[in-house]
């Protein structure tokens, strides 16, 4: 007879007991069964529902059904490993069997203490991240009851990527642990919750799996990686043990984070020292010839000799170079403080590119080619800042390309974006440097400070300006084969562009007629520019694209010739059509030129201007670039 208080003392035993029928339905289980084993069962429920599939589970089922004894290890649905003994029911008892569960795991604070001491000793010897991780995994294998230990660290600047930093064994044979999948649920859950997770390593050994623990490395402000612990079959992790390894992982995480901070601090010091060296060299380079040139001019003036214009221009170039270096430093500082001013307004990229490239054509003996789309490409941007980006890209293309090599600039539109591509055939940028060229003070390793000047700020500033416009600056390059830098910016919508005024450039020798034409066109929403203030005013106004030139047909050939000659010197991205106004076409007009009545009649003037603007100039259309006036 079983004593009546038998069940009252079962909670004192570490083992847990239950009885099952021949089909493995639970017939009886002790009250503390779930607490001891971590498996929630109820009378009448099938035992196999609470166990992970394995050959051991099949062997257990066969033993119960055939009335044989059995002993082996099983994995519960709660990811805990247990040892099970099967005792078949006696002949006089109902069919079935008694099962005794032995929960595995250990609560070894001494092992934890030894591991923490080993990690602390490693940190005292070195702050190299991988060295500290290697010491930690070796300490775990030596001091704790784990078969294998690994550390995976989160890669800087990547989303979810993990790098194996240390492993406790280097067995020649492959093992299932070598096929680590960072996207697996236990690893992702451990990283997300910052709590240890239990998983099953399937396919190892004779059984279908063994248990591992994924312990996150939690630094104060972020999770820096994972500690993976594998045990021999038959062993598992208790809750207390996982708490201990979480604490040990925290110590390791702090060591890893300190090592990272030290590495970043050392890198920052190296960058600062290198920058100070480069900056002093770059600032001194223009100062020396500038000082000598000023001394020379001072002596010539003191002795009554004339100062040569070439000396003044040379000094001016050195001053401009110094001003550029100082501006770069100031812009970099403003960007760091978030105080770089931006003044956005509608801007046509083709016109901007044409102007900047035209400046480079006059400054350098090198072929520059420009390709723009037929339709105008409008963006909302700060003209001066975007010009700064384009100038920097062209200066780099010129500086790093061999003499005479062509440089190509393309403007295109794609979807909601406008793009500018600057392509050169220079030295290119090594692949290892391409991800870092937009960092402050960074210079590619194939760039020598002796042969190529600069502070390493131009691309950093340009990239930041593009970002502030809601766009981006990207790079495609191969060492020795040139580079292509691409600026992408959000395009203005068709509705926004439709609200922009069209620009008409007006020349009429009769001020009254000119005022009348300007009044009529402005009333219709056009922006009218006149050149009565001279050619300099024309140059200043032409920084935005001109849509149409309205010329008086009765103006003198000299006046028209000077105007067209001046206009022809201005950079333009696309041809500009001409509309003549008068009683008849002048002798210098090309065949097919459209004529508008003058004195101006409001309805006809507006209709002729709108019709001319609606047409796309073809190769035979009279445009400002082709009209020649015989003087």
TrEMBL record:
Fetch the Gene3D superfamilies from UniProt. Answer: 1.10.287.130, 3.30.450.40, 3.40.50.2300, Histidine kinase-like ATPase, C-terminal domain
What is the E.C. number? Answer: 2.7.13.3
Q: Where is the Response regulatory domain?
A: 503-613
Instruction: Name the chemical reaction catalysed here.
Output: ATP + protein L-histidine = ADP + protein N-phospho-L-histidine
GO molecular function terms attached to this record: phosphorelay sensor kinase activity
Record Pfam families: GAF_3, HATPase_c, HisKA
EC supergroup of this enzyme: transferase
Instruction: Answer whether the UniProt record assigns the keyword Phosphoprotein to this protein.
Output: yes
The residue ranges of the Histidine kinase domain are: 278-493
Q: Which InterPro entries match?
A: CheY-like_superfamily (IPR011006), GAF (IPR003018), GAF-like_dom_sf (IPR029016), HATPase_C_sf (IPR036890), HATPase_dom (IPR003594), His_kinase_dom (IPR005467), HisK_dim/P_dom (IPR003661), HisK_dim/P_sf (IPR036097)
Q: Which UniProt keywords apply?
A: Kinase, Phosphoprotein, Transferase
Name of this chain's protein = histidine kinase
Organism of this sequence: Stigmatella aurantiaca (strain DW4/3-1)
């Amino acid at each position: 007879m079983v004593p009546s208080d038998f069940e009252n003392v079962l909670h004192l035993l570490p083992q847990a007991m239950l009885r099952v029928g021949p089909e493995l339905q639970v017939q009886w289980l002790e009250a503390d069964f779930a607490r001891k084993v971590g498996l929630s069962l109820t009378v009448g429920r099938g035992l196999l529902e609470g166990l992970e599939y394995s050959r051991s589970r099949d062997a257990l089922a066969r033993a119960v059904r055939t009335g044989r004894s059995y002993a082996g290890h099983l994995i519960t649905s709660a990811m805990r490993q247990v040892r099970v003994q099967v005792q078949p029911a006696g002949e006089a008892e109902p069919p079935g069997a008694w099962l005794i569960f032995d929960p595995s795991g250990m609560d070894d604070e001494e092992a934890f203490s030894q591991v923490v001491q080993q990690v602390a000793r490693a940190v005292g010897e070195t702050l190299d991240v991988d060295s500290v991780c290697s010491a930690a995994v070796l300490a775990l294998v030596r001091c704790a009851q784990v078969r294998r230990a690994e550390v995976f660290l989160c890669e800087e600047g990547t989303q979810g990527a993990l790098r194996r930093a240390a492993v406790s064994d280097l067995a020649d044979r492959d093992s299932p642990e070598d096929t680590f999948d960072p996207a697996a649920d236990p690893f992702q859950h451990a990283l997300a919750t910052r709590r240890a997770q239990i998983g099953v390593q399937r396919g190892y050994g004779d059984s279908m799996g063994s248990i591992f623990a994924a312990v996150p490395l939690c630094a104060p402000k972020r999770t820096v990686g994972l500690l993976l612990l594998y045990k021999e079959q038959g062993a598992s992790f208790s809750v207390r043990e996982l708490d201990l390894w979480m604490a040990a992982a925290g110590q390791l995480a702090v060591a890893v984070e300190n090592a990272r901070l030290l590495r970043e601090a050392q890198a920052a010091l190296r960058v600062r020292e290198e920058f100070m060296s480069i900056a002093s060299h770059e600032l001194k380079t223009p100062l020396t010839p500038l000082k000598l040139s000023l001394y020379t001019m001072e002596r010539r003036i003191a002795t009554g000799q004339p100062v040569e214009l070439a000396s003044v221009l040379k000094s001016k170039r050195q001053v401009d170079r110094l001003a550029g270096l100082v501006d770069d430093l100031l812009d970099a500082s403003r960007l760091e403080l978030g105080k770089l001013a931006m003044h956005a307004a509608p801007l046509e990229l083709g016109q901007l590119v044409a102007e900047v490239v035209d400046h480079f054509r006059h400054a350098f003996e090198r072929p520059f080619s420009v390709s723009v789309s037929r339709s105008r490409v409008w963006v909302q941007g700060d003209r001066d800042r975007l010009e700064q980006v384009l100038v920097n890209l062209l200066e780099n293309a010129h500086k790093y390309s061999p003499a005479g090599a062509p440089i190509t600039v393309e403007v295109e539109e794609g979807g909601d974006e406008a793009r500018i591509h600057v392509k050169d055939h220079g030295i290119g940028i090594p692949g290892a440097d391409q991800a870092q060229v937009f960092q402050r003070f960074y210079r590619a390793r194939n760039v020598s400070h002796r042969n190529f000047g600069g502070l390493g700020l131009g691309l950093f500033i340009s990239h930041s300006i593009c970002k502030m416009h809601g766009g981006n600056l990207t790079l495609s390059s191969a060492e020795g084969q040139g580079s292509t830098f691409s600026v992408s910016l959000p395009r203005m919508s068709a509705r926004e562009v439709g609200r922009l005024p069209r620009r008409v450039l007006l020349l009429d020798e009769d001020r009254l007629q000119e005022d009348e034409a300007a009044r009529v066109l402005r009333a219709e929403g056009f922006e009218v520019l006149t050149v009565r203030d001279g050619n300099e005013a024309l140059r200043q106004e032409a920084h935005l694209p001109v849509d149409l030139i309205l010329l008086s047909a009765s103006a003198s050939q000299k006046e028209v010739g000077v105007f067209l000659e001046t206009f022809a010197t201005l950079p333009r991205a696309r041809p500009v059509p001409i509309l003549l106004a008068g009683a008849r076409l002048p002798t210098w007009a090309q065949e097919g030129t459209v004529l508008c009545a003058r004195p101006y009649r409001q309805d006809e003037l507006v209709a002729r201007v709108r019709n001319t603007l609606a047409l796309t100039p073809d190769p035979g259309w009279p445009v400002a670039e082709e009209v020649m006036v015989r003087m």
